[in-house]
Amino acid sequence: MGGEKKVEETDQQRAFADVMRAKMVDFNTRWKPVLQRFAAHAQRSMDPNSYEHRRAAGMATTDNAAAFAPAKEKLVASEAAKGAFGSARQKLGLAEMDLDQATSGAMAETNTQQAVDDAALQQMGAAAAMGRGQQATAVNGMRTAADISGRQAAQDAQTALNERIGEVGLAAQAGGMAVGLAAGVPKAPTTDQPVELPYQLRGQNKY
Amino acid sequence: MQSPFVPPSGMSAGQTLAQLTRAQWVDWYTTWKPFEDKLIEFQQSPTAVADSMARASQNVQRSFDMQEQSTAERLQGYGLSLSADESAALKRSSGLARSLADVNAQNSARDMTRARQMSILGNPAPTVGG
């Protein structure tokens, strides 16, 4: 009768599970620490007082000073070449050049801070995307597991079907014999014929 | 570092795959979800824009303070000094330049921070008025 029948896993299924397990171990030992460091770095660099922000601000200030220094020297040299140096126009001209430098420096610092924030956020996004990839793999894993259990269910159904067919076949055989005996003409048993599976199961099992 | 969730060898294929799936889910939840949460927190932060504008304003104030000091020292180096009228004129133009730079920097920081917040959703904020 159709008692509980455990379907043995195939070698391919076991090999597949072994490979998946090995991949998980490999990911955990080699890649996960790298990804975690990357993600932690991204998170740290979002802090306005992070090294990245301070370095960017320092570079912006240095670049600004380096760009304005020659211009200031040129202004002083050209004014001094005219002879008298020290008029109100010249003094205020020099001072206003400093104001230009202050404006430029502040905007450069703000923009570089924003650029660092942009980069940090992109890295955070990349870290989250890595996680989403893993999440997708987990969901795919569920699908694979579902596929396997689906295939197992199909195998179970096939086993049950074969058992039923066997029982019905024997009954038919017995019935045929009885009818044959009654008619005096023995009938050939029909169970030697290839068994046609129901249409649904043929489709499910890709026959 | 071996995850405690990696199934031991010797399990059936079905159990191994189920355990791996659980392990991946737990790993995502404990390791990667916090990063997503951080991004979402930034996207929804009511203070991110204000903080960014405040930082931009600080940059401007610091930069102008430094330059004022530098201007005084440089003029002194050339043996020059400003008269009262010249000082007043410089103060006016300095105040105007400082205010203008402050507004500019804060506007710029606000726009960029808002765009960054929106970019988490995959769409940069539309640029209105150039």
| Major β-sheet profile of chain A | none
Shape of chain B: rod-shaped
Low-confidence stretches of chain A: 168-207
What level of helicity do the residues of chain B show? over 70%
Number of helices of chain B: 3
| Share of helix of chain A, binned | over 70%
Write down how many β-strands of chain B occur, each being a DSSP E stretch of 2 or more residues: 0
Distance between the termini of chain B: 51 Å
Q: Strand content of the residues of chain A, in percent?
A: under 5%
How is the biggest beta sheet of chain B arranged? none
Average pLDDT for all residues of chain B = 86
Termini separation of chain A:
26 Å
Structural class assignment of chain A: mainly alpha
Could you please describe the fold and organization of this structure?
The complex is a heterodimer of chains A (207) and B (130). By secondary structure, chain A is mainly α. Chain A contains four helices and no strands. Mean pLDDT of chain A is 72; it is low at 168-207. The radius of gyration of chain B is 28 Å and the shape is rod-shaped. Helices cover 75% and strands 0% of the residues of chain B. In chain B, 26% of the residues are buried. Chain B is mainly α and 130 residues long. Chain B has helices at residues 13-44, 48-77, 84-119. In chain B, α2 (48-77) packs antiparallel against α3. At the A-B interface, α1 and α3 of A face α1, α2 and α3 of B.
